[in-house]
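Work Package 3 (structural annotation) set out to generate three-dimensional models for the target panel prioritized at the project kickoff. During this period the team completed the workflow that converts sequence records into discrete structure tokens, so that structures can be stored uniformly alongside our sequence database. As a representative example, we reproduce one entry of 227 residues exactly as it appears in the project archive.
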Amino acid sequence: MLQKWIATAVLALGFVGVSQAALVEGQDFAVLPKPVPQLQQDKIEVLEFFGYFCIHCKNLDPTLLAHVKKMPSDTYFRGEHVVWRPEDIGLARITAAVNASGLKYQANPAIFKAVMDEKINLSNPDVFKDWVVKQTAFDGQKLLAAYNGFQNQAEAKAMAQLSADHAIQSTPTIIIGGKYRLLSQDMNKLDELIDKVRQERGMPAAQIKAAVKMPATGARLAKAANQ
């Protein structure tokens, strides 16, 4: 019986080793030529550059946000809208408002549907304001208040600068630890890259997060994480 237990344990360890070894540079991930500064230096950041106009982002969003809820307590999520064209700044403003209000899980499906399926020009501030107060799937007044907030336009401009500084060319682009770009939409590979960053930094083993909580600090740092 002891020999059988040892053989089983060795086999299990072998599978772990194979899983870790399966992470291949150029196939599963790429190393960024220029690191992206994290918002929280003591944790592992999962950053998504996305677009509300992007069908791949729309399809990935439910899976990614569900996965974010299960991420360990040493890891947090940050969403930034790409700005490639002048009209994208309007969608970046919506993103900043969604982050600031904490309504990502409730509002994102409706926003994606409006932009992608219903072809509503939410990048236009007047159109967005008229649309958002009519929504029932989330608190439209709360989102509008964040959209009209003092820092909203500055947040959107920061997204534009970030898109340019790091030459983001496609969406969704997922970056882990400010260093690695995920080359697929495989959540298992995402977790493996989080583990890779954790090991490289010499961080303690991951602790399961009891609940998704919003940090209480400044608008950009506080509201971009765990939305």
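Residues 1-19, 211-227 have pLDDT under 50 and may be disordered.
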